[in-house]
# Entry
Amino acid sequence: MSETAEKTVENHVFEADVARLLHLMVHSVYSDKDVFLRELISNAADACEKLRYEAITHPEMLGHDAQPHISLTLDEEARRIVVEDNGIGMSRGEMIESLGTIARSGTRAFMEMVEAAKGKDGAQLIGQFGVGFYSAFMVADKVDVVSRRAGSAEAWIWSSDGKGSYNIAEASAADAPKRGTRITLHLLEDAQKYTSRWNVEHIVKQQSGHVPVPIDLHEKPGAEAVRLTDGTALWTRSKSEISKEEYTDFYRSVAGQYDEPALTVHFRAEGRHEYTALAFIPSTPPFDLFDTDRKGRMKLYVKRVFITDDAELLPRYLRFVRGLVDTADLPLNVSREMIQESPLLAAIRKGVTNRVLTSIEKLAENEPESFAKLWETFGSVIKEGIYEDFERRQQLIALSRFRTTANEEPVRSLADYVKDMKDGQKAIYYLAGSSLAQLKASPQLEGFRARGIEVLLLTDPVDSFWVTTAPDFEGKPFRSITQGNADLADIQPLDAKEDKPKATADVDGFIAFAKSTLGDAVADVRASDRLTESPVCLVATEQGPDRQLEKILQGAGRMEQAAKPILEVNPDHALIAAIAAAPAGDEFRADAVQLLLDQARVLDGDKPADPRAFSERLARVFERALKS
# Structure
């Protein structure tokens, strides 16, 4: 009996989320199973990087094995593949925490996305959610993990068949690496190909060639090692030496995604501050794009040693950018507090931000179709910068693209909008709402459409905020068409006819009656020059937020009570004329006025203020119509 067998073996049940995840893995929800090797190598490289960082303050942890390395050993006879590193290793407690539980708050979302994807984007989802270790169970019916934490005399072995539980026991000194982790995969019968040198070498060079730790391959146990990759950090090489495929491979690892980068930004800054930056804009949105903390995912390296991915190297409106910055100007033992307060990091942040935005501008100029796809994916996030980044506000406004009443596709720039403005038009008009269909049906658009005035159609929640802080563009202020007076009198309708029939009823008298009837429900009732087809609409007063911003603030609990709207009536509409012509003492007029207000609310995407009263009034109007 071996020494390990004599140790006490503990049996643990996986927590519910892990058990569910393993079920998905075992039942092959992913079409690309090669991803398991990329993920295990990536984890091994991270372990080596963590050791390098800890060894800055505790160099004794390196012992006599200072150079990090990863080795793969194939065993065709036993149908096994072994992935081993000499990184930081794991203690018993770290094994239980890292391999038996999932601490990531996004796990439930991951499960839902996996089940919805049904294998289409599995490789991408695995990397994004940081659950790569469990992908081993796509190809193995048993996984053994032996690990010894750097500086520890004890080693531990973790074993599981992926069916709901795992065992953990102390490993013998002879069975464990001197430092680091050894993962043995007992392969399924249909995964025999992963013991083939050609297959494994191809996967490693294609998917993990960028890893900043050397990778060796042993074709069989005891065989001489063959070096597959030399561990040279890709970002230290000249751009001219790096192929598109190498950039893509590196991007997929650092981003945890499996798509192609939409844009690659690689540069070295020299002068007062020296650093290298390699940044990628994905072509598909990361799963955490709209997380409430809005944190970026750029990594900070000092002299090729990974320091942190929490240095905020880009503003939050560029949080979808993935990549790294490597500098030699910071001390290796830089603390989190020093990072937050460092003038150097502030300078790097400014330089990288400027370069990323300049690269996006060049893409817009030189490859408009590629830029249009990028904007469709990330435009709603980039526009957050107009609200937050005062220094670059005008640059971001110029970069932004919009759907408008003139052109929904392709989207338009504000430079195009201003160039095509009508004679006499003094502002850039916009309409904000929750959906394009709702905006296109808005009655407030009618007068602008009739005059051929282009209106921006804004459907992103952030739009309602940045337009209130952006002062102007090329001297033209932004103006909501649902707020204040439309001021359209100076611009003639495209089909204006002098002999167009006008309503002859006492509309002024009707408006006075409507004000009296509606009382405190509205701030005012007035004739409209923005309506051409609908009888009524609601607009906000000049002071305070426009209609859409008011709804957003109320929904977020930032506004206790909505401001009273203004009811505008179309004096040329037949319905208004008919109601205005009704006898002054007719009870129908009061019902009609209240129904007009509810109609305006419905057109604005709201509900009647009092559904029961609305229903009763509507019934009385129907009854009157049927009797007449």
In short: The chain has four domains: 3-232, 235-368, 410-480, 507-627. Residues 235-368 form a domain with the Ribosomal Protein S5; domain 2 fold (CATH 3.30.230.80).
